[in-house]
Amino acid sequence: MPDNRLIVALDVPNAIAGLDLAKQIGPAVDFYKIGLGMLTGGGLALANELKQEHGKRIFLDMKLFDIGATVEAAVRGLAQFDLDFLTVHGDPHVVRAAKEGAAGSNLKILAVTILTSMDRSDLDACLIQEGEVPELVVTRALRAFEAGADGVIASPQEARLIRNQPEAEGRLIVTPGVRPTGTASGDQKRTATPAQAIKNGANYIVVGRPIHKATDPAAAAAAVLAEIDQSTTST
Ligand code: C5P
Q: In the chain, pLDDT over 90 holds for what percent of residues?
């Protein structure tokens, strides 16, 4: 039985390359993330194929944001595809609408608090209220939980702060910005190893480039899974 705490980001140009990568990785990984970049390259069809024909779990990373009625309609449409996770921005009206749209399906709604690529000067440019980023992330997570989010996306450091909140009990924390020991961080600013992320309270980690850019993606995925395993055995 694969350890499904690892979600591999299929950040490749199109569905054909995505399917090829999933086949190369093989049975060790059973959870894949499909993002906006692949949407116009057959991303939804790939999601469907991986789910229906290969039995994989699917995380659709769309980071939806719009008026409530539009978000609800979009999520209702997506919920028909029998997917597992969907991201929306963590604004309460968006989360509430997404939960309405997902009603009756197994689709879990994950809220994005503050994009991990943004720092305080970016927030100033967006007229976001004063306060340090980690503090605002926790407040946004609490509001998203209150609005019904099944979980949040959080960097490894934020994961610990959110997991410490009583309101996070029973909610999912999904963590990108994870770098296996000895690999390049790329543009991710606040990284942690797979074991650290899990110890910080993440239920799932998302790993992209260290796997899809590796010469042997299956071996790279196996290395991440081994590091996740250490987090459980070496406490
Ligand atoms: O290649 P890498 O491991 O950095 O990929 C991480 C994945 O997680 C990418 O698909 C990226 O878009 C996504 N992501 C992120 N930070 C967020 C939300 C999603 O890195 N806050």
A: 85
